[in-house]
Every structure is written in structure tokens, then in C-alpha cells.
Description:
The protein has 19 helices and twelve strands. The protein has helices spanning 2-10, 14-46, 51-99, 103-109, 111-135, 138-153, 158-202, 204-209, 213-266, 271-312, 374-379, 404-409, 425-429, 438-447, 451-456, 474-487, 504-517, 553-559, 561-571; strands at residues 334-341, 351-358, 363-368, 389-394, 397-398, 411-414, 423-424, 464-465, 492-496, 522-526, 538-543, 546-551. 35% of the residues are buried. The chain crosses the membrane at residues 12-34, 54-80, 127-151, 157-180, 237-260, 280-298.
Amino acid sequence: MLAKLLIRYLRPYRWLLLALLIFQFAAAMASLYLPRLNADIIDQGVARGDTNFIWSRGMIMLVISLGQITASIIATYFAARAAMAAGRDIRRDVFEKVSGFSERELSQFGAGSLITRNTNDVQQVQMLAMMGATMLVSAPLLALGGIFMALQQDVGLSWLIAVAVPALLVAAGLIIARMVPLFRSYQSKLDAVNRIMREQLTGVRVVRAFVRERIEEERFRAANTDIMVVGRKVGSLFVLLFPLAMLVLNVTVVGVIWFGGIQVDSGAVEIGTLFAFMQYVAQILMGVLMASFMTVMIPRAAVSAERIGEVLDSHSTLERPTNPITAFPEPGAVEFDDVAFAYPGAESPVVSGVSFAARPGETVAIVGSTGAGKTTLVSLIPRLFDVTAGAVRVGGVDVREADLDGLWKGIGLVPQRPFLFSGTVASNLRFGREEATDDELWRALEIAQGRDFVEAMDGGLEARIAQGGTNVSGGQRQRLAIARAIVHRPSVLVFDDSFSALDLSTDARLRQALWDELPEVTKIVVAQRVSTITGADRIVVLEDGRMVGLGTHEELLETSATYREIVESQLGVEA
């Protein structure tokens, strides 16, 4: 998966990679040629006292060194550009993929894990791409080229290379083999830390209300300690690699000096040649060390690439139709035709056998006890889920065959737990329609009974809204969410228990304004309070996911025992 991911996202930048390969090759060749010039200066210049030779070769070495530095800088720049661009593209594709997920896929992965995959995991692959591109040519050239040049200097000491290189490879291999399972464990524990942190931030009010701070702190401490233990093991192995490499390098250098000194003393080898051989040995081992360092990064990046690939290869259950229907012959019409829905692996469907219709401009209410399937049912209208049996039609078109953008454009959804984005009141209201004017925003707020408190806020429409709307009350969040849906100009408004945080008088005024100002808009209302839906054109009664009643308030009082029980529990027998 790692190779597949890198090839896929680095392919658009192949010209950058080609350029960096050329400059890396030039820098590596310069590194291999410098020890030979150094040997010539010692053997032919210093030994003979030839100052002109020393100056001429020294100037050549200086020019080559400057060229090597320049080539290395340019190669690193190209590597950084290609790797950062690839990381950007991966994050973009993961975000776009997640944006198309249904509730099913979001629940499967979890929000914390998806955040980690699009940040930390992408960073691991991105860093491997950068380091790999930087060392792609230099490491093997330094190692193989160094061996070739060292053998040209003195074959008699080549046995030292034959011992040092395998020793370094074995040491690095043993360490890396122990790192692979630790990297897998580290990423999963990082998911746990992110998940717990996100839960605590989101549910901070609940935590404080139930005095669970110490328990939650302990839960986070346990997860934090787990990731610390694994990270410490990884770090211990990682830092062990460099001392081992330096040990092998220094022992090899000592061997070269020891055995080479004997040959110099006997006159078999010149001292410049010995110094050049030592430099080539250092380059060989540094090349092997660079390759080992890359190998250390590969396991963690491979784990991250697998996690990214799981997201990119996932197929949303909300697949767009091949030939989507863009025309809706009956705007505002909503029809449920023997609808059933079951979650994957569930023993029984959440809703089943539901059939009703709402004509344009009508109000249809859905009531039932907690867990009856009301939210699931209305989630089928904007196709947040796909039905497992039957059909849902909006505007006269089956939602599974409709163009999703066209479908969503005609639906204004006010969820059970309204969410506001960080920004301003205006930016949140324009989330549904960017071109909406200030007058349209104020009109929507007036219908949603939110104009008074927005005018009282510092800045009015430009008043700041914190992430999630935490700086406004629950009732204000609901009214802003309702206003946002109105600004959207939908033909169908879906209220999923969207009046629960409002007092009775505000609830009544808001419903009256909706009915008076938007008579042409179809309204699907999920409500717990009976007083909210007594004036609906039709009321759907759900019990255990099945429709057990359909009619007006008066009709259901006569025909539905379930509805009558709900009414009596809230309004009394006289109702």
C-alpha cells in the first residue's frame, strides 16, 4: 500500500523528482571524487613540497565542494516541494472522501481516527517521501561508489569493508524488526488519545455536571501512559541504532589505521592513499546508515499508508447514480413507500412498513416514544442513509436516483443537535446560501424568532460564534439553525425535534411564523411535545419502528391508542 500510495501521489511531480535525481547524482559523484583529490595533494603535493600543485588541486576541491553544496541544496528543495505537494494532495483526497461518507462509514471509522489519519498518518508518509527522495540516490551511490573507489585505493584492506557493512546491516535489521509491531500499536494508541480528548472537549458540560473530572482525567492518563510506554520503546530502539552505527564506524576506522599504518610503515601504501581509504570507508558506512535510517521510517509510514488506504478505498453507501435525475417534477412532495431500514448486522430493522405522503405546502408530524425510529426515518429524506426496502421519493423522484446536489438543494435540515461553525452569525446563516443578502438574513431570523437576541449581540450579524455555538444558549443555537435552513430556500423543511429547547410561547410564535411566511414549503416535523404538532395536516405515529397511526390530531385520538397515550401523558385526559 505504501508503494502504491507514493507512486499515485508523486507521479504528478515526476519532473521535480527527475531534476532532484540529477542533482543528487552530481552531489554524490562530487563526494566520491573529493577523497581522491585529497590523496593526490598529500602524496604528490605535501610529500614533494610542490606548493603550486597543492594550490591548484585545492582550488579544484573548493569548486567541487561548492558545487556539491549547491547541488545538495537544490535536490533537498525539489524533494521538499514534491513531498509537501504529495502530502497536500493526500489530505485533500482523504477530506473529500470523508465528506462523502454516510453516517455508517463515519461510525465505522470514528471521528478521532479519521482526524489522526488525515494529520499524523499523512505526515508520516509525507516525511518518508521527503527523506526517501533526498536519500534515494545518495545512499546507494555513497555505499556502492565508495566500495568501488576504496577497492581502487587498496584491495588489501577491503576485508574490513566486508566485515563492517554486514555487521551494520545485521544490527539495523534486528532493531527494525522489533520496531514494526510497535509502530502499529503506537498509531492505534494515538487514535485512543485523540478519541478521549475529543469526547472530553465535546462533553465537558456532562463531565462537570456528573463530577466525572477525576475519572475522565484517569481515563486520559491511562491512554496517555499507554502511548508513552510504546513511544519510549520505539525511541529506545531508535536511539540504539546510531550508537551501534558509530561503534561499527569507529572500530572500522581504528582497523584501517592499525592495519594501514603497518602497510605505510613498510612502504607498501602511501599515507594519502590510506587517508582516502578511510574517507571512503566512512562514506560507505554513512550510506548504509542512511539506508538504515530510511528503513526505520518505512515501517511506520507503511502502517500509516495502510490506514490512509482504508479510507481512500472505502466505498460510501451513498453512491451517486450513474445517470442522476436532475429534474424534480413535484417540488416539495415527499413520499414514503413501504420503507424499511436496518443497520448492518442488526437483527431487526429500525423502521419498517412506513408509508405516507406529504403534498407541497403540507405539514406532516412524526411522533413516537424514545427509540421509535423518528430520527432515522427523517434521515432517509436527505439520503443520509439508504433504505433497505421500499422507496423514499422527494419531488416525485426516488432519492437513490436523484442528483444529490439537486436533492440537497431542495431540502433544509435542522438536526436534533444543531451545530454552528466558528465564525459569525452571518457566515453561519450563509452556510446554506452564500449570496443571501443581509435583509434576507434578518427576515430568516425574524421567522425563527432570533432577531431580538442577534440584535442584542455585539456586532449583530457580525457577532462572533464559537465552534459548535458554545457561546450561545441551546435555544439560540436551535433558532440560528432554523434560520440557516430558511435562508437555504428549500422546498422541504425537515425539523428533527428542533423546538425542544424553546419555551412554549417561543415555540408557538415560531411555528406560526413558519406557517404564515412559508406556506408553500413542505414541513416534516419530529416532535416530542404534542402541542407542537396538533395543527399538522397529518401525524405519523411510530412504535418500535412501525407506523401504528396516520391522520389528524382529532382522528388519531379516536383511532390510535398509542397516540392517545402520548397525548394523555402530556396534556391530560381532557385533550
